[in-house]
């Protein structure tokens, strides 16, 4: 808190020293391009793993500028985010609970047991990414504006590269299976990805989709490619943009052609992926999830 000028010189010296220490704390290490978060406040101290209400970030823009912004998360939003996805850990294997907790059926098969002759149903569930995308698109608008302000992004400019650079520098780390006593299967919805300061491939891809569409009303169709093959499981954001020379693209039936967007690490521009992922996409070893 700023003090008035009638305070003593002792306090002034202490204040300057404090600022110096804080500047050293927030200064990124040499070669470090990831976020340096700080946090404060949260739920009462008797609650495990408190969710923080305030987080400050620094990141490197593509042009080399070191930028900073502060995100404020209300208890209401964080509670909604926590309860919007997942189930109580005791229900993690209960299909009916999972279907009410943010999952959907993507495959349903039946087989006959040779021994008993009984008909058995096999159900494959997957996170309902489109529902998560739609739920938080408007709620992420203020955070998108915070990034745009830090970047000095004009309202008529395409925010894709700036937002992608921002999200790529969020540390890549798998969220836990159990978070605040809820089974979330290693996936953070967008507000939690920002408030916790890390996320994995699908968490960061959905976050970028919400940031982008909440700020850029002219955005084309978006989706996810859930890659699964040859021991590789990965998620990438898909966006309908013109394919320039050297870029990879994906064609989805009834939806058209998309550029892949890698969110997990800095340096990947839209339309560019590792050769392994490109091969898997060409072989069709992915599931397309439209955002609509």
Structure description:
By secondary structure, the chain is α+β, with helices and mostly antiparallel strands. It folds into two domains: 15-101 and 137-219, no CATH class; 220-292, no CATH class. Helix content is 32%, strand content 25%. The chain contains nine helices and 13 strands. The chain has helices spanning 9-26, 75-84, 95-100, 129-136, 141-151, 160-168, 190-196, 201-215, 275-282; strands spanning 38-40, 54-60, 66-72, 87-88, 103-112, 119-127, 178-179, 182-183, 222-229, 232-239, 250-252, 256-261, 286-291. It has a five-stranded antiparallel sheet, with helices on both faces. A three-stranded antiparallel sheet has the order 1-2-3, covered by helices on one side. A hairpin with a 2-residue loop joins strand 9 (222-229) and strand 10. Helix 2 crosses helix 7 (190-196), helix 6 packs antiparallel against helix 8 and helix 7 packs across helix 8 (201-215). The relative contact order is 0.11. Mean pLDDT is 83; it is low at 1-45.
Helix vs. strand class = alpha+beta
Separation of the first and last Cα atoms: 45 Å
Helical amount: 25-40%
What are the secondary-structure elements, in order, as H or E?
HEEEHEHEEHHHEEHHEEEEHE
Count of separate DSSP helical elements = 9
Instruction: Write down the domain tally.
Output: 2
> Which descriptor suits the 3D outline?
globular
Query: Tally of extended strands?
Result: 13
Mean pLDDT across all residues, rounded?
83
**Gyration radius, to the nearest Å?**
22 Å
Strand order of the largest sheet: 11-12-10-9-13
Oligomer: single chain
Q: What fraction of the residues are assigned to beta strands by DSSP? A: 25-35%
Report the biggest beta sheet as strand number plus sense, adding barrel if it closes: 5 strands, antiparallel
Give the uncertain stretches in residue-range form: 1-45
